[in-house]
Write a structure and sequence with these properties.
Length: 175
Amino acid sequence: SRARVMHSFWQRLNALFFYTLSVLGFLAFMAAISTYFHQADPKVELKLERILLRKVYGPGHDQAILSLGINADLRSVFNWNVKQLFAYVTAEYETEANVLNQVVVWDAVISEKELAWIRSDFVVNKYSLTDQGYGLLDNNVTLVMNWNIIPATGLLTLSHAFDQVHRFQVPATYS
């Protein structure tokens, strides 16, 4: 006959804790996977209202102050697993030194679906468009709306509205 071994209180508590942890981990994984196939259809319209280009002599660079028109309906990006949305506009351009320059010119943190429709006819950029050199003068710039989804559970994701961009030519003279 075999002797029966009794498990101690701590062994039973350990087994219960890790079983519960495994179930919670599985549920978090299933929750994250449930929003993987969510199809968002954001509508983005960006436009340049005004640009002021100046030459900064000390460090030697161009600086552009932009006035933007932003109409971005990102409400369709939200689902039950979205905790926050980090939306930002980048200005992208090429120079002789770099094939791609990306500068964030405006951003916002959105924590509710109702606030995810950004409508403003005249927004001055939060961060100046600065080129370390003189590469902005008479250059082509593309404004792109981007957003990061911060989920309650799951992976962070990055999206771009590349099909709804705004292109403009920087003036050939300084203001």
